[in-house]
Design brief:
This protein is an alpha/beta fold. It is built from 13 helices and twelve strands. The chain is 42% helix and 23% strand. The two termini are 47 Å apart. The mean pLDDT is 92.
């Protein structure tokens, strides 16, 4: 609580809405009860008053369940397996699992991490709940794995005047699953109104990959129509194999070029490198461009400035080169991908100067 007050004082905040997620909830509860004059509202998500089992808290975790869970966590610490408990809807995302593993290793040793979980197991602020007098919103997902939904229902029953909202879903972390519904409830509670959020069908953040064959016209003249057509068929097959392997979605194919979209920039860069390597055995050299930005969704297609930027970057790439924007290289920091500077460029029809890098 001292930390919260210190931060509020440092930024000149006399009153704030306090958001407590998971084990952050109990501290937020005590803060709101102790400093109501500094708390405009209290919001609790996926939280609890007491995590451990008790005769009057039968949905809590027993000591045996805690120790079994801790043993498993100790054996797999740093492997990203927390994703199975906290974000199970994303458990199939291997890149995210690696990122979570890095987070586990960077944030704490196994001993410190498990001590933190044991500390949470000992929290009990149930006696504080009746003393809360600020507007309170309680949010919980019905199939939350670490924190049973009964914890949220208990909070709602014991905080006078609290508004309680349940959401379907199995994820504990609010940014996994339907995050818009959670944010919408918070916005409505704090402001009295709720803006319409643009749907995914209108605009979407995507990573765009462009590829095309270098010197295709010369190869066509050299090989003739029939042999060129056979070569293109093999090229297309290899490109589509790599798109499938890297979870890319083919958006368009024009002649010897491909436009594909990815939900992660690292996959797009790796796919570009894999395409360059795989088609080389056909005696073909390709260039590739990668950019991440907001795209317009037009039926099954994508459009907008981000697509144009990706195309312009691809056109500047050298044979066998995957050229990316600075945006992409910044987003994949920590992924193990390496890049070499290629200078600052003007992109035809696109404002400003653009730093470009080549995937090494």
């Amino acid at each position: 609580m001292d930390d919260v007050r210190a931060v509020m004082d440092a930024v000149g905040s006399t009153r704030a809405a306090i958001f407590g997620m998971s084990e952050g909830g109990p501290m937020s509860i005590v803060f709101a009860a102790t400093y109501p004059q500094r708390t405009s509202a209290l919001i609790l998500y996926g939280s609890f008053a007491r995590w451990a089992w008790a005769p009057d808290n039968a949905w809590g975790r027993t000591d045996e369940q805690l120790e079994a869970g801790l043993k498993m966590r100790e054996e797999t610490w740093g492997q990203g397996n927390f994703i199975d408990l906290f974000m199970p809807s994303l458990a199939g995302d291997e890149e995210l699992r690696k990122l979570v593993g890095r987070f586990e290793r960077a944030s704490a040793s196994p001993g410190a991490g498990l001590a933190f979980i044991r500390m949470n197991h000992g929290i009990d602020v149930r006696h504080v709940l009746p003393t809360i007098g600020v507007p309170t919103l309680i949010l919980h997902r019905t199939a939350d794995l670490p924190t049973n939904v009964e914890h949220g229902r208990y909070l709602a029953r014991n905080i006078k005047g609290a508004k309680y909202v349940e959401f379907p879903g199995i994820d504990h972390n609010p940014w996994a699953g339907d995050a818009n519904s959670i944010v919408g409830e918070i916005e409505s509670f704090l402001t009295g109104q709720r803006r319409e959020i643009e749907t995914e069908s209108d605009r979407v953040l995507a990573t765009i990959l462009f590829t095309d064959i270098v010197g295709s016209t010369n190869r066509l003249v050299e090989l003739g129509d029939r042999r060129w057509k056979d070569l293109l068929t093999q090229h297309h097959s290899l490109v589509r194999d790599q798109l499938t392997r890297h979870r890319g979605r083919e958006i368009d194919t024009a002649g010897d070029g491909f436009l594909a979209a990815f939900d992660g920039p690292a996959r797009a860069v790796r796919c570009g490198r894999a395409i360059v390597d795989s088609v080389r055995k056909l005696g073909i050299h390709v260039r590739a461009g990668v950019h991440t930005g907001e795209c317009e969704v037009i039926g099954e297609k994508l459009g907008g400035i981000a697509v144009h930027i990706g195309a312009r970057i691809g056109a500047l790439a050298a044979p066998d080169e995957v050229l990316v924007s600075r945006t992409v290289s910044d987003l994949v920091a920590g992924s193990g991908l390496r890049f070499e500077e290629r200078g600052t460029h003007s992109l035809k029809g696109v404002p400003g100067s653009w730093q470009l890098l080549a995937a090494a």
